[in-house]
Amino acid sequence: MAYAGDVEKWKTEYGVTVEPVFSENGMYVQDAFAKAGVALDKTCAAILCGQKEMALAVTDMFKEGGVDESHILTNF
């Protein structure tokens, strides 16, 4: 996982909560994220890496949840 070594530091130093979501067991990331029921609002951000289709779908989910597009980073 990208930034795995930094997650605990972000939590203790900055109060950031990280919710890792991976595609597994035949479920796409966007479906797993929706199933997890994570509340989205303007305080959220995302770092997305993987297939463009997944990143676009999750970006749409975040934007619909009130997350500013400038808080969504992708690998493309």
List keywords for this structure.
8% strand, two-stranded parallel ribbon, 2 strands, 76 residues, 3 helices, mainly alpha
Kindly describe this structure:
The protein contains 3 helices and 2 strands; from the N terminus they run ααβαβ. Helices cover 38% and strands 8% of the residues. The longest helix has 13 residues, at 52-64. The protein is mainly α.
Helical region count? 3
Q: Rg from C-alpha positions? A: 12 Å
- Share of helix, binned: 25-40%
Roughly how many Å apart are the termini? 17 Å
Query: How many β-strand stretches?
Result: 2
Average pLDDT level: 88
Unreliably modeled segments: none
Structural class determined from secondary elements: mainly alpha
Percent of residues in beta strands: 5-15%
Q: Outline, from the CA principal axes?
A: globular
Widest sheet, order of strands: 1-2
Largest sheet: 2 strands, parallel
What pattern of helices and strands is seen along the backbone?
HHEHE
List the helices and strands and how they pair.
Elements: H1 7-14, H2 29-36, E1 46-48, H3 52-64, E2 72-74
Parallel strand pairs: 1-2
Please summarize what this structure is.
The chain is mainly α. It has 3 helices and 2 strands.
